[in-house]
Amino acid sequence: MTDGTGGQAIAAAAEGGVEPAFTVDELAARAGVTVRTIRFYSGRGLLPPPVIGPRRVGHYGPGHLSRLALIEELQHQGMTLAAIERYLEQLPADLSEQDLAIHRALVASWAPESAEEVTRRELTRRAGRELSEEDVDRLAAMGVLDRRPDGLLRLDGSLLRLGLELLDVPIAHETILASRTVLLEHARAAAQELSRLFRDEVWGPYRESREDPDHVAAMKSLSAHMQPMVVQALVTAFQRSLREELRAAFGSDR
C-alpha cells in the first residue's frame, strides 16, 4: 500500500522531529503513503484517531508517523494486516513516538531476512518438484510460506528444504496446524517476557548511563548483538525440554 520508499520516508520524519500537528495530506506526504492508505489503516484501528481542531479538521502528530513506520516495517517482514492488528493491540496505548521507533528498530534487527516474494512457478523450481494445492497449504501451515492476495507467495527460503521433507512424513494437516499453534503461543509468551526484561533491565539502564541522543540507533545495535545469544538459548532450552518430555513419555531407552 506504499510506494516502496514509504519506510525510509516515515523513519526519517518520525526520528528527525516534526511539527506537533499536521493534516492528513501532510501526514501522507511526510510518511510517503497515500491518504487512502492512512484512512484505511485508521478504519482498521491500526492508527489512533486524529485530534479534531477548528473547522472539524483532523490533526496528526509524531506518534502517527512512528506508528506508520512500525506498520511499514512489519509489512516488510511479511506480516499480514490481521497479524499487524494483533501485534499493535498488545502494545500499551500511551507509547510515545520514541517508544514506537524502538519497537520498529527491534523488529528490523530481530526479524529473519530470508523471506521473499515468489511466484508459484518459482516455488516449483526452488522445490525441484511439482507441488499440489494441498502441498502448498501444508507448507503454509508449517510457516514456510504465506499466500498473498495478489497471488504471490511470501517464502522463507531457510525453511523450504525442511518443509519439503516434512511433506513426505505422514502427519495430518490438522496436527501440523495444532503444533504450530502451540509453538506460536509459547514463543509469543517468551518473546513478551524477554521484551519486558530487555526494556526494564537492559535498555533502561543503558539509555540512562549514556549521553548519546541517538537512542534508537544505539538500541538497535545492542539488540542485534543480543539476538543470536537469545535465539541459541531458546533453541537449547527447547531441545533439552523436548528430550526430557520424550524420555518421560516413551522411556529413556527409546
Could you describe the 3D structure shown?
This protein has helices at residues 6-16, 24-31, 35-43, 62-76, 81-89, 97-110, 120-127, 133-141, 157-167, 173-208, 215-250; strands at residues 51-52, 58-59, 115-118, 145-147, 153-156. Mean pLDDT is 76; it is low at 1-19. α1 runs antiparallel to α4. It folds into three domains: 6-110, Multidrug-efflux Transporter Regulator, Chain: A, Domain 2, CATH 1.10.1660; 115-167; 173-250, no CATH class. The protein starts with 5 loop residues before the first helix and ends with a helix. It has a three-stranded antiparallel β-sheet. The protein contains eleven helices and five strands; from the N terminus they run αααββαααβααββααα. It is mainly α.
What key attributes describe this structure?
Multidrug-efflux Transporter Regulator, Chain: A, Domain 2, two-stranded antiparallel ribbon, 254 residues, mainly alpha, globular
How many DSSP-defined strands?
5
The Cα radius of gyration reads 21 Å
Number of helices: 11
From the spread of the alpha carbons, the general shape counts as: globular
For the biggest β-sheet, the strand order reads 3-5-4
The proportion of residues in beta strands is 5-15%
Assigned CATH architecture of the largest domain: Orthogonal Bundle
Low-confidence stretches: 1-19
